Amino acid sequence: MKNKVKIVAPIIGRNWTELKQHLLLVQSNKPDLIEWRIDTLESLPNENQLIKFIQLIKEHTTLPLLATFRTATEGGDLEISDKQYIELLLALCQNPVISFLDIEVRINKDEILPIIERAQHNKIKVITSYHNFDCTPTNDELYHKISRMLEVKTDIAKLAVMPRNASDILRLMTFSCDISQKK
User: Fold this and answer.
1) Catalytic entry in 83, 131, 153, 183
2) Which one of 13, 38, 69, 129 is CB 3.0 to 4.6 Å from 158, fit for a cystine?
């Protein structure tokens, strides 16, 4: 996937019926992969429910699956503890049906490193992500986030921020260019 544009279609739903309807709808747009936003379920699934949902999704698509639980801290729909988040990620990174796993970089390095290692061992690509929908943080803050992502040997680093003016947009574009040149 290096240097190639890919279209990711998120699927959302509070239950299997809604999730399936959304999955069938987004597939008609021919995306390159499906992102399951687990945090849109009406409640946090237990491990057996998680496995069942993943099996049902894969029965309805051959596209690669990106598993994402966006915590409320970073704009997601369900409020869960960091302990629950880590347990969920550990369960997800053991499922061979998943192609990509999104992990928020805000989690302690000592807690996410084993998850990343297990996922990569199971041939799951790891996306470490940071979301701020209030503003575009300073360049120093953005460099700190990217540095943490690279430090944990992520496969893909993702920053999602909210520019508030033209200056933020220009700064973000310059930052992206600088980071790309430093690889």
Assistant:
1) 131
2) 129
pLDDT tens-digit readout, 136-179: 999 999 999 999 999 999 999 999 999 999 999 999 999 999 98
Is 144 among the catalytic positions? Answer: no
Chain segment 16-31, per-residue pLDDT in tens = 999 999 999 999 899 9
Task: State how far the Cα of 32 lies from the Cα of 77, in Å rounded to an integer.
Answer: 25
DSSP secondary structure letter of residue 54? H
User: Whose CA is closest to 35, among 79, 91, 98?
Assistant: 98
Side-chain half-sphere CA neighbours of 141 within 13 A: 13
Catalytic residue among 20, 58, 125, 158: 158
Q: Catalytic residue at 121?
A: no
- Contact between 98 and 65 (Cβ < 8 Å): yes
- In sequence order, which residues have a C-beta less than 8 Å from that of residue 181 and are 6 or more positions away? none
